Amino acid sequence: MKVHTQRLKDLGKAARNLLILALLVSAMSAAFVIYQTTEEVVTIVDEENTMEYSFRGNKTAGEILSDNDLYLEEMDELSMALSQEVNNGDTIEIKRASDLTVVVDGKEYAFTTAEDQVDRIIKRLGLRINELDIVQPAQGEVIQAGFDGEIRITRVTEEMDVNEYPIKYAKVTRSNANMDKGEVKTIQRGSDGLRSVSEKVVYHDGVEYSRTIVEEVVEREPKEEIKEVGTNVYIATSRGQTRFQTAMYVTATAYCSCTICTGSGNGITASGTRATASRTIAAPSNFRFGTEFYIPYFRGSSNRGIFKVEDRGGAIRGNRIDIYFNSHEEAIRFGRKTLKVYVLD
Ligand SMILES: [Zn+2]
To answer: Which positions ≥6 away from 29 have C-beta within 8 Å?
Structure first.
C-alpha cells in the first residue's frame, strides 16, 4: 500500500514537469509571434494634417518622414531629432515655417520662421512691448491658419490734458416800477466762472486715438449779471399824467435855419413844416414825423418841454436829437447836452 502510493506520487511529478515545459514552449513561441506581428503606430502632425503611421521594427523619425514622402524645408521644425528612434504611440510634429512681417514703430521686420506663438516671435526679435501696447494677434496667441502673416504692434501712450474753460455768466433782468420804461440799471456786473476739464488722451503710434473726460472741476462759479429795467410809463407834464412809450438819454445838439446849420437855409423841415423854435426837433428816422418828445430840461419854457419830431439830419442817428432855435447864437449857446427825454405815446 505504501509502495503503491509512492509510485503514484512519482508519476504525478513527471506529468507536472512535462506540463510546465509545454507551457513554457508555447509562451515563448507566442511571444515570438507577437513580436513578429506587432505594429508600432505613430502620429504624424504636419500642420493641419494628422495621420497615423504603422510600422514594424525600429525606425528613426527621419525614416518615418521619408516613408511618408514628407520633407522638411530649411526653416521647418520637427518636434524630435531626425535621428531619434521612434516608439509606439509617439507623435512626430512638423512645424512648417511661414513668412511673417512684424510691423512696429514705423518699421517692418520680414522673416521666415516655424515659430507660431506671437510672444515668442516678438521675443526673438528683441522687441520690447509696453504694458499698454496692442499686439495683433494678441500675445500668447498661436498663429492660426489663414493668418495674413502680419503681426502689428501698436504703441499706446496716455496723457492727461487739462484745459480751463470759461463758464458764461447768466443774465437776469428784473423789472422796477420806480424806474421809467427804457431805463436800465445794472445792479450787479456779471463775470464768467472757470471750470477745468481733465481728459485722458490715448495715442496710438503717436496719433491721438481717443479722449475721455476724467474729471471736471468748477474752479470759480460765475456771477450773474443783474439788471433792472423800468416799467413806469407815466410822467407828469403840463398835460397831467402823460403816458410815454420810452424814456431815454440822448445827446442833444441845437441848430437854426442858417446856411451853416442847414444846407438850404430856407427854414423848411424835412417833413415840410416851417421850422419853429420850442417845437421842432430833428430825430432819427425810427421816430416818425409828428412824434412828441417831452424833455424835462425845457419844462420851464413856453412849450412846457413838449417838442415834435419834424426834421431829420445827416448826423442825427442813434441817440442823437437836434433842437431847433430861432438864432444861430441861441443854438451855439445851447451847445451839446445829455438830456433825458420821454417819447410820448
Ligand atoms: Zn445856425
So the answer is: none
Q: What was the pLDDT predicted at 194?
A: 98
* H or E element in which residue 136 lies: strand 134-136
What are the angstrom distances between the C-alpha of 57 and each of 44, 53, 217, 340? 18, 13, 82, 125
Whether the predicted pLDDT of 124 surpasses 90: no
- CB of 140 within 8 A of CB of 165? no
Q: How far is the CA of 262 from the centre of ligand 1 (A)?
A: 7
Residue 156 cell numbers, joined = 499706446
Task: For residue 63, give its domain range.
Answer: 40-95
Q: Final residue of a domain: which of 210, 228, 246?
A: 228
* Cα of 289 from ligand 1 centre, angstroms: 22
pLDDT at 256 over 70: yes
In the 8-state DSSP scheme, what is residue 120?
H
- Same-domain status, 150 and 195: no
pLDDT tens readout for residues 145-162: 677 889 999 999 999 999
Query: How close is the Cα of 327 to the center of ligand 1, in Å?
Result: 6
